[in-house]
What does this fold into?
Amino acid sequence: MTTGTATPVATKAAAAPRRHVLDLDDFDKAEIESVLNSANAMREVLGRDIKKVPALRGKVVLTVFLEASTRTRVSFEQAGKILSADVINISGSGTSAEKGESLLNTALTLQAMHADLIIIRSPQSGAPYFLARNLDSVSVINAGDGTHAHPTQALLDLMTMRRHIGDLAGAKVVIIGDVLHSRVARSNIYGLAAVGADVVLSGPPTMMPLEMLRGRSEHFPVSVTVQPDLDKAIEDADVVMALRIQKERAAGGLLPSMREYTRRWQITEARLARAKPGALVMHPGPMNEGIEISSSIAHGPGAQIEEQVTNGVAIRMALLYQTLAGAGGVEL
It folds into this structure.
């Protein structure tokens, strides 16, 4: 049995810790591995009877969520409190922003309150970047901005994959669904490319980010391919990741119908049988069971969806520590 007095775990942050975490497009393999290694130490803390360490005592963390969230908001809040930070939650409802105040003026007000870190989730793509450019003394972590990026979700996905597969170089990861509008998929593409995985995208052609792929940076160590036929895409996959389909996309003409999407791109037992034995099944949540993924697969032995949630807390603990405590080691 583990207890709150278990042997301390030392974790090293990156040699040059970054002030902001906005996306993974500028993370290299070494930096990603540094975060994942730190998160492994944080998981040990989550397994203790007393889940509390003083690493960020005296630090003030603000979670500013301008759109609804459960998993991400609670995960960041739990991560901060376990590390002994003072966490203050701010939602879009009832704030000065709702009364017409600009995002910049709201953020400057929060900075004047001597916050150390703002974690922002916004329906507007680019909002975290705007804050990072305009705030002098506050760090910013992107908890999801519009259809642009969700770096912490991608990192927890990478952590989940690595815990089961090991080195991800050469691993085949299939991402299925509305990639065009998915901030999760975009950040995963950058992260997976950085660690050398082979990424295959599958879904309706109207939902593939062809412009993004044509303009992708040459530093990607592998190619990202598009295969609309899921039966072909899933062949010999190590990881199969479904994205949530937003039903309004069908009404907007991007899908022929939800029934057609289910027929062609739902992860079923028959399709998963084409992947490697023991292939991981992942989903960022929330799931539409019976649409992008069958219930038997979502709750089957290969599903890592609950582990993704646990790893999300560990990843966010690691990022909070690395952002606020610097590059030194810490005893947890």
About this structure: The chain has two domains: 10-150+310-331, 151-304. The first helix runs from residue 29 to 46. The chain is about 40% helix and 15% strand.
